[in-house]
Design a protein that fits this description.
Strand order of the largest sheet: 1-2
Oligomer: single chain
Number of strands: 2
Radius of gyration: 22 Å
Number of helices: 12
Structural class: mainly alpha
Order of helices and strands: HHEHHHEHHHHHHH
Length: 317
């Protein structure tokens, strides 16, 4: 095992630990504060679950691919499909968050009547079922299996996955299109909020504060989307280059960095929440003190629990 392999494995382990613990902390915060148990935070929990899966499943399986362990073709293909499933689960969760905030801003009066608990669960089910189906498409035949090739092989992504599927179906159809839709939604949200802030410049102080908090919350969620794009775009570009330019050879260290960057994205969201959302940060510290460092007993959290969901969800730095 060379130095490059060792460095890659160490970084994957660090990403796996931070992604798992950080996003478990996010879910713990949402569970402990009833006011957080509303639409946007349901979708944030969905995103956190996808990120935990990156730490628990994707990062270890990526090491298997990196070491080119000898496996049955379909076992290797299934590993690659798992990687695709949770990438798309993150995308769909981000799209659900953007759609929810768009409805909240654009249709403020009818929002609570439209976004019922039943519809939330239907949206979550759609996100995960869609991700599962899109990710498992190669298992149903869109792969590189040929009867004349050995059934056992050194498992790696390019040996089993069709780049037509990866580039045209996965990237262009189920990643790029949702990303463009999300960018359009956030752009419209910012425009609507800026207009409302200008219109209410001379109105009641409470109304201005409400729109100001909403604006800050949207900036925090848009930052999560921006980080996703920054972390995943290099790998997607490399895959596209490899597909359209058969003679091009991407250096292995560059590919490793792109893969690690895409996985590292799952560790960043808890940090964004801590930096941007005040109550998240306070509860992080509280949980770490009481359950990790055992520094003091947990204080009464009834004030947090009795806070309205509208106030809590919008209370950002």
């Amino acid at each position: 095992m060379n130095t490059l392999h060792i460095v890659y494995i160490i970084v994957e382990v660090l990403i796996a630990v931070t992604a798992t613990l950080g996003n478990a902390l996010v879910i713990c915060v949402v569970r402990r504060i009833p006011a957080y148990q509303n639409t946007t935070f349901y979708f944030i929990v969905s995103l956190a679950l996808a990120d935990i899966a990156v730490g628990v499943l994707v990062a270890p399986l990526a090491v298997v691919l990196r070491l080119e362990v000898v496996l049955h073709f379909y076992a290797c293909l299934f590993i690659c499909c798992i990687l695709m499933i949770f990438c798309h689960a993150s995308i769909m969760s981000l799209l659900a968050i953007a759609t929810d905030r768009y409805l909240r801003v654009k249709l403020a009066i009818r929002y609570k009547a439209m976004v019922t608990r039943r519809r939330i669960w239907a949206a979550l089910s759609f996100c995960w079922i869609t991700s599962l189906l899109v990710g498992l498409v190669p298992m149903f035949g869109w792969n590189l299996r040929k009867p004349e090739n050995p059934i056992y092989l050194k498992c790696s992504y390019p040996k089993v996955m069709s780049m037509d599927y990866v580039v045209y179906f996965s990237f262009f159809s189920w990643i790029l299109v949702p990303l463009l839709v999300m960018c359009a939604l956030y752009s419209e949200i910012f425009n609507v909020l800026q207009t409302k802030l200008k219109q209410n410049a001379t109105c009641m102080k409470g109304t201005r504060i409400l729109y100001g908090r909403e604006f800050k919350m949207i900036k925090s969620l848009a930052l999560v989307l921006f980080l996703f794009i920054v972390c995943w775009l290099p790998l997607l570009i490399i895959n596209s280059i490899s597909h359209f330019c058969q003679t091009c050879r991407v250096p292995l260290p560059v590919l490793d960095v792109a893969i690690l960057l895409s996985h590292a994205n799952s560790s960043l969201n808890p940090i964004v929440y801590a930096l941007r959302i005040k109550r998240f940060r306070k509860m992080y510290i509280l949980i770490l003190k009481t359950h990790v460092f055992c520094l003091k007993q947990e204080p009464d959290t009834s004030k947090m629990e009795n806070t309205s969901s509208d106030q809590v969800i919008e209370e950002s730095i």
